[in-house]
Write a structure and sequence with these properties.
Shape: extended
Helix content: 40-55%
Strand content: 5-15%
Number of helices: 15
Distance between the termini: 92 Å
Structural class: alpha+beta
Low-confidence stretches: 39-57, 275-289, 477-502
Radius of gyration: 35 Å
Order of helices and strands: HHHHEHHEEEEEEEHEEHHHHEHHHEHEE
Strand order of the largest sheet: 4-5-6-7
Mean pLDDT: 80
């Protein structure tokens, strides 16, 4: 107590007690405000600065604002639904990697396989890991830059360095320089200015790199567009709204579980009949603090004019509906299915899930074949061929050999049905075995060699598996093992040796 409180207490203890109670309540309000401030900082400050109605109309040559990028990065780091959507997109766009298979000589194929492991300039990931990194950065920030580097020494010299948009040096001036991009006379980017490091402690200054050595990966959605926009720009608020609503529901449940009692004093009660603790209940004579706990067998006497009321928080309905429709809104904006984003399969059957999956797979294929493969995968292959030819690792004939790009296999939920459909398509001549094998994520020639090697090894060991004919045109082992017209099952013979049918 300060000197003023002590003076008031000397003349009017009751007023001094009220002042102390009010100060305690004000301190509690300050604590609540501090908690809310910390929560707000955890969520990235107020969303008012990111209000879509307050956003300026961006031109085709402008990038996302720094504020939006930072908010999206925070959301996808802490929001569970956002992280599930990220995994869903990457599993279907990249998965284990979009493979590029050279059709040239065996030496060329080996050189390519060896380089895949050494593709990363930072020495952390292989080529397929870089595919995941650049794909996600493009989706999140709207654009990403891949710089061509050359490393002297053993092995293929080409290395790929991935830079995000923050590393563009916007401080570089010039008549045709904007946000670190220098434009040529033809209206296309001619040079890129990158800061040597985002962290100032690793050095200042920028590096000017010609556009031929830079892949600027972004989704082009309108004519004249030269800067990328985030894949999630339309759901910035929606992702946070769903998470906030779930947290608010959790707080409400905690309040419902609280057993709160409130002591009410009648205004007609005589102040002389009330003790010093009547404002908040009985008083512990040792500490002169109100007793606020209830325990079994407790007997408490209330003063005249006091009653007890118990808190009854009212349950708010509509939680499931809001969560479902909020998630549907976010899933639609993120171009994923509701089931893929939430993992909730309670409201689908096989047919509806298959129909939704087909639409989703088509959308993922569109991004793969119209953006990732032509802008990134093909450019990387061309860089590799140029450096491989310049260093004598491939010849002129290999230089003209095409690469076959194969997106990751889409796992089926009806393997037997899909296998029958593939067989009918091959028999009808409307599909090839090579294409069907490629859709499964395998290389046709390698698979054929593996099958031939396995069959040769099986013949040598006297083994025939179900479905393996010993020679082209023979009956399958599975057919031979079935009861014939005489009701017996004949063994499959190969070269006069008895073959065990497995």
């Amino acid at each position: 107590m300060n000197i003023i409180d002590r003076a008031i207490a000397a003349f009017s203890p009751e007023r001094a007690l009220k002042r102390a109670m009010m100060r305690t309540q004000l301190d509690r309000v300050d604590q609540v405000r501090a908690i809310q401030t910390r929560k707000q900082k955890r969520r990235g400050d107020s969303w008012a600065v990111n209000d879509p109605s307050a956003r300026p109309v961006h031109s085709a040559a402008s990038a996302m604002s720094v504020v939006d990028r930072h908010k999206l990065r925070r959301i996808f780091r802490f929001n569970p639904f956002a992280r599930k959507m990220k995994a869903n997109l990457l599993n279907n766009l990249v998965a284990y990697g979009i493979t590029a298979t050279p059709t040239g000589s065996k030496k060329m194929q080996k050189e390519w396989r060896d380089w895949i492991a050494a593709a990363d300039h930072d020495g952390i990931q292989d080529l397929y890991g870089l595919q995941e990194l650049v794909t996600w950065t493009m989706l999140l920030d709207g654009e990403v830059f891949i710089v061509r580097r050359a490393v002297a020494g053993a092995g293929h010299p080409l290395r790929l360095q991935v830079l995000r948009v923050d590393q563009l040096d916007g401080a570089v001036g010039g008549l045709k320089v904007r946000d670190g991009i220098e434009w040529g006379e033809d209206g296309k980017p001619a040079f890129y200015h990158f800061r040597k490091s985002i962290d100032p402690m690793f050095g200042q200054g920028s590096e000017r790199i010609q556009a031929a050595d830079v892949i600027h990966l972004f989704r082009r959605e309108e004519p004249g567009q030269w800067r990328g926009r985030s894949h999630f720009e339309s759901v910035i608020e929606g992702l946070d709204d769903v998470d906030d609503y779930i947290e608010a529901e959790g707080v409400r449940k905690k309040l419902e579980s609280c057993f709160a009692a409130f002591v009410e004093t009648s205004i007609d009660a005589d102040p002389a009949d009330r003790g010093i603790g009547d404002q908040n209940g009985d008083v512990d004579s040792r500490s002169e603090q109100p007793i606020e706990a209830l325990y079994p067998g407790m007997i408490s006497y209330l003063d005249q004019g006091q009653t007890v009321k118990f808190g009854e928080p009212k349950a708010a309905g509509g939680f499931s509906d809001f969560l479902r429709w909020g998630s549907l809104r976010v899933a639609a904006g993120g171009e994923v299915t509701y089931e893929g984003m939430t993992g909730d399969l309670s409201n689908v059957n096989f047919s509806s899930f298959k129909a939704g999956s087909n639409e989703f797979e088509t959308g993922m294929g569109r991004i793969q074949w119209l953006t990732i493969i032509p802008q990134f995968c093909v450019r990387v292959v061309n860089w590799w061929l140029e450096d491989a030819f310049a260093t004598g690792r491939v010849g002129s004939r290999d230089l003209r050999s095409p690469f076959k790009h194969t997106p990751p296999r889409v796992k089926t939920i009806d393997r037997a049905g899909d296998a029958k459909a593939a067989l009918l398509e091959m028999q009808a001549g409307i599909e090839s075995r090579r294409n069907i094998i490629a859709e499964r994520g395998n290389d046709h020639d390698e698979l054929m060699e593996e099958i031939a090697a396995d069959r040769a090894a099986n013949v040598k060991r006297g083994i025939a598996f179900m479905g393996d004919p010993s020679t082209p045109g023979d009956k399958n082992a599975s057919d031979a093992s079935q009861p014939g017209a005489d009701g017996s099952a004949d063994d499959v013979s190969s070269g006069g040796d008895t073959t065990v049918v497995v």
